[in-house]
Amino acid sequence: MDECRNSVCIKIEELDPAFLFTWKGTRNKNQDEGAFRSHDHLEMSFVLSGEGRYRFDDGIVSVQEGDLIIINPGVRHQALACPDVELPATEFFVGASDIRICGLPDNVIPVPDGGHVLHTAGELRQKLFKICSSMEAENAVCRQGRYFMLKSYLMQILLLVIREQCEPIERAKGCSFESVNRKYVVEQIVSYFDDHYNEKISLDQIAENMYLSPFYISKIFKSETGDTPIRHLINIRLEKAKELLEGGWEGSIQEVAASVGYDDAYHFSKLFKKRYGISPSQARRN
Fold first, then answer.
1. Are 146 and 138 in contact (CB under 8 A)?
2. What DSSP designation does 83 have?
3. How far, in Å, CA of 10 to CA of 163, rounded?
4. Is there a contact between 106 and 53 (Cβ–Cβ < 8 Å)?
5. For the segment 11-69, what is each residue's pLDDT rounded down to a tens digit?
6. pTM for the full model?
7. Parallel, antiparallel, or unpaired: how do β-strands 59-64 and 51-56 relate?
8. What is the rounded CA–CA span in Å between residue 220 and residue 212?
9. Which one, of 160, 162, 163, lies nearest residue 127 by Cα?
């Protein structure tokens, strides 16, 4: 039995929820235009990226990347489109029922300060990103035990939310991933560059696959390596091209460029000369 800051008695040993659904989407228009909605199950929405707003009976709440919106049964709400923001919110929804916590109505989990949003940071945020990624991947294929795998991820989310409110230690605002986790993220990106340097690579796509924002990836990559992800990728490509040219490969400069991921031979040659002080043709002659 745990004692929470909000004095709710929680027996996590009795937690045995039913998984209902999961869905990922970007908010481009208001939900149920002009009307509230509510339901008898628990719904949670984790903001993967961007910004958004929710309207509740007690007012409008702004949400952003890393926020977990907790909509308990009977809570009237409406998700609002935000045409004024640069990046609309992309959210990952999870529905659940059969949740029974001592001292609370069925399917209700506690929310900080009695509100609707849990603002996450650091390790908790990273764990939720990973769980959402795993749930999306599991939901995309029909493999044996799919429901129970999704239920296990749901259990993790519920326990993380409950634990977060049971820990008396206040989290510092704006904290980032632990250094070991930052290093892991960077190592994964570097490994991907090494294996796929000759393909079209988009930082936005990498960020989406890792459920991180491009800005955050660039920030931690530079802090760990001293270079930006794109600059690091360019260096790998140019080094591979130099090896080909000096190794006597007989393909044209256009073919050399294409073999390391560049469609434009002129752009490739310009980057090559800037890096090594000589043109690709000169490198081949040398």
1. yes
2. T
3. 10
4. no
5. 555 678 999 999 998 877 665 555 788 899 999 999 999 899 999 988 999 999 999 99
6. 0.56
7. antiparallel
8. 11
9. 160
